[in-house]
Structure formats: C-alpha cells, structure tokens
Amino acid sequence: MKIELPGKVSFIISNLQMHGYEAYAVGGCVRDAILAKEPEDWDITTSATPAEIKKYFRHTVDTGIEHGTVTVILGRDSFEVTTYRMDGIYEDGRHPTTVTFTDNLAEDLKRRDFTMNAMAYNDAVRLVDVTGGMRDLNVHTIRCVGEAHERFQEDALRILRAIRFSAQLNFKIEHYTAEAMRDLAPSLAKISAERIQVELVKLLISDHPEKLHEAYGLGITKEVLPEYDAMVGVEQNTPHHQYDVAIHTLYALRAIKKDKILRLAVLFHDMGKAQMKTTDEAGVDHFKGHGALSEEIANEVMHRLRFDKDTIKKVIRLVRYHDYRFYPTQRNVRHAINRIGVDMFPYFLAVRLADTKAQSAYQKREKLENIVQVREIYHKIMAEEQCVNLQDLAVTGNDLLELGMKPGKDVGVVLNTLLELVLDEPAHNEKAYLLKYVTERILK
Questions:
Q1: Is the pTM above the cut of 0.90?
Q2: What is the residue-averaged pLDDT of the chain?
Q3: How far is the CA of 398 from the CAs of 405, 406, 423, in angstroms?
Q4: Angle at 256 between CA 252 and CA 259, to 5 degrees
Q5: Could you tell me if 99 and 50 are in contact, meaning their C-beta atoms sit under 8 angstroms apart?
Q6: Taking CA 373 as the corner, what is the angle to CA 368 and CA 378, rounded to the nearest 5 degrees?
Q7: What tens digit of pLDDT does each residue of 123-179 get?
Q8: What residues have CB less than 8 Å from 150, skipping those under 6 apart?
Q9: Rounded CA separation 303/316 (Å)
Q10: Which pLDDT score, from 0 to 100, does residue 273 have?
Q11: pLDDT value at position 191?
Q12: What is the average per-residue pLDDT within 377-393?
C-alpha cells in the first residue's frame, strides 16, 4: 500500500532515517489516509530519543518530552515526533505513571487504543500493522488493541473516543469492545469535564450524531449526560409528533448542518419536556413551558461541561426561542429579529426547520412554508437595512440629552419606546420625526 506523505512529513522521516533511526507516520493520520480522508495532523513515531530528535532539527518545542514527544517546527507547520515507548501502570485511569522508551515499533503500536489507530507507515517499509488495523478498517469495525477491559481501565477517555469514532466514521463497535465499554462506563467519572465536552462536541458535529443513542445503550450518557437519558421513552401523544422526545431529538440533529452551536441547541431544545409533560382528558400530551426549562437545563449542563461563555450564550438563546412562532409579516419578523438578534436569527430559522422536519406529517407543509416565508422577509429586511435594534435607530441617547432629558434610565426607556415605534413602521426611523415625537408625546 502506498500513502502519499506530505513533503514535510517525508523530510522529518528521511532526516531521522539518514542519521540511523527508524521513523514512521503513525496513528490517526495513517488511518485517515487509508480511508481517503484528509488527516488533521500528521504524527510521527521514531526510535530516536527526544534528545536525539532535538539534535537533528533546528526548531523544536518540548511539548511532552517526559512522554517522549518533541514538536518539530518547519516553517508555519508543526509536527509531533514521539519516541517509541511502553506505558507503565495507569493509576488515575487517564495517564501512565511511567513511560519507558524502546527501540521496538511493535511494542509502541501495541500500547495504543484501537487497531485502526495502531498502524505506522513510511515509504521504505510501507504499512506496519501488527494488531489487525487494516482488517478492521476493511470491515468498518472499532476494536481495542489487545484486551478491551485493560485498554479502558488504562484510560477511560477511550470509551468516549470509541463512540465518537463510531459517529465520525459510521463504524460498528466490536462486541467485546462494546461490552467492556458498558462494564467500565462508570469510570468516566475520572475524566475531566473539558475532555468530556470535546468528545461530545466531536460526536455531535459528526455525520452520525444519532450514535448518541448507542452511547445511551452502553450506559455512557448516564455518566456524562444523564439529561439525555431522561428524554428516552418520553412519548409525545400529540398530532405534531411521531417519536418519543429522544428519538425526535436525534432526527432533528440529523436534519441540521454540522455546526457546533446549531447541534448543541438541537440537543437541548426539548430536554425540559420530560418534566413538563401533562396529559389531558382526551389523552393528548402537552409540554407547556418546556422551552424555559430546556433553557435552564442547557445552561446547567454547559456550565458543568465547561463550555465557553459565548457558546453558552448563543445556545441557550436558541433553546429559549426554538418554539417561537409567528405569522410571517414584516412587522412580526422585525420584532423577532430584535428579540433574537440579527446574527442569531438565521440560526433560529435553522433550528426551527430541523425541529419541524423531525415532527409528524401533521401540518408539516404549512409549518415549512411559514419558515420559508419568514426567511424571505428576513433577507428583504436585511437588504433594505431596516432598523431592527438600537444601533440602527436614527437617534441616540445624546440626542435626547440635547432635548433636555436628564441622564439616567429614563433615556433608555425612551430609546426603547422609539425602537418599538420604528419596528412597527420602519419609515419612522428619521431623526427629525423621532425627536419631534419625543418633544410632543413624551416631554410635553
């Protein structure tokens, strides 16, 4: 098998070989290259020690030298070069207490997580596969290297990595690997919130976010996202739905583009339904107030998983308004844009569209037509640069002060009153008209 290595990767490998060492591209980059995917990073493994690596490259950084990793910098690109190693005991379920360097590539490959990630390649030797990685790639299977329980006991994060790879590659998880994941799922308590967040997001923005339900089946979400488990089996006996809350959420995830903010918003949008469900005398289910509770849940979960403030702000806003519906008129759309935000409004429409696509056929055509009409009006409003927020208002607080108003909260109240006036009728967004309105209606 021939893999086209990038020039700089070939240079690093050749330079080390020229000085008497073995060197190979290794891990995920080899896997992705075989699958005809563009690798995000090219990692290199070598028989050279960190000191020897540093000796033969001009620019290096000690990024993980205690574990044998030196980053080699070539121009604007950087490559992690790691000495063959064998790991000691994992006492914390995440990191080895000791690392022993070796000159045996096979020993290095055998310590890795999954067979598909335990292959090495260079142009001289070609593919080195001592664990059956190529076999598993051919049958689209994720399998632990060696004994699965041992691999997950060494590093519980591998449990999440397995389900994430399954979602990214649409591979099945081999039976014994899946059983070990189920048995050791409680050990995910050892994993930091930040690491859980990273793996969850990668799963969600994959081609197959519905693999989240497989994580539920293996007891993984119980440990890292129990709020998902609460949605499972919550039936929606209403004309608007045909699936329980969890399955509806999965269909909505599949219906929206692979964007972090959008997929998180869809994940959380109905999480409040389990607690807000009521059933009337006719046997019809209702979920009044679920949007507000879903927003609270999203806020709590995202803080728990250490999401950044900007992501939290955007996601909870979308969750809050995901069920906000209105008749498609310019006035209504202007008010909606003002409420949701200019930048977030296209996201709001995308969430509504995905939510609708995942519902039953009942009134679906009318719902979709409504979204299309709202989108067209939104684009018209933006194209005409109509005023939809205080920044676009023709008067400012200073203009009101010049009219004689005293500084304070009353200035803000008046500005918002004028904005409401303009949202109702954009032609009123003229400085002379608005100042006259203030003089005659407010200050008199």
A1: yes
A2: 95
A3: 9, 10, 21
A4: 125
A5: no
A6: 125
A7: 999 999 999 999 999 999 999 999 999 999 999 999 999 999 999 999 999 999 999
A8: none
A9: 11
A10: 98
A11: 95
A12: 97
Q: Judge whether residue 96 has pLDDT over 80.
A: no
Sign for the pseudo-dihedral over CA of 304, 305, 311, 316? negative
Mean local confidence (pLDDT), 5-18: 98
Location of structure tokens 């030797």: 125
Q: Residue 365: its pLDDT value, please? A: 97
Q: Alpha-carbon distance 358 to 250, whole Å?
A: 8
User: Can you tell me the distance from the alpha carbon of 93 to that of 190, in angstroms, rounded to the nearest whole number?
Assistant: 7
Q: What pLDDT digit, counting tens, does each position of 75-89 carry?
A: 999 999 999 998 766
Token pair of 287 as six digits? 């979920």
Q: Which pair of tokens denotes residue 242?
A: 């045909």
Q: How far apart, in Å, do the first and last CA atoms of the chain sit? A: 86
Phi/psi for 51 (5° steps) reads -65, -40
- Reported as a single tens digit per residue, the pLDDT across 37-92 is 999 999 999 999 999 999 999 999 998 888 899 999 999 999 999 999 987 666 65
Distances in Å between the alpha carbon of 220 and those of 112, 274, 283?
A: 22, 20, 33
Look up residue 60 and give its amino acid. T
Give me the pLDDT at residue 92, please: 56
Residue 443: per-residue pLDDT? 83
Angle at 399 between CA 396 and CA 401, to 5 degrees: 115
Q: Find all residues with CB under 8 Å of 392, minimum gap 6, and list them.
A: 385, 386, 429
Tokens at 79, concatenated: 């490559």
Task: At 166, list the tokens.
Answer: 């399954």
> Which pLDDT belongs to residue 286?
97
Question: Tokens 């696509």 identify what position?
Answer: 357
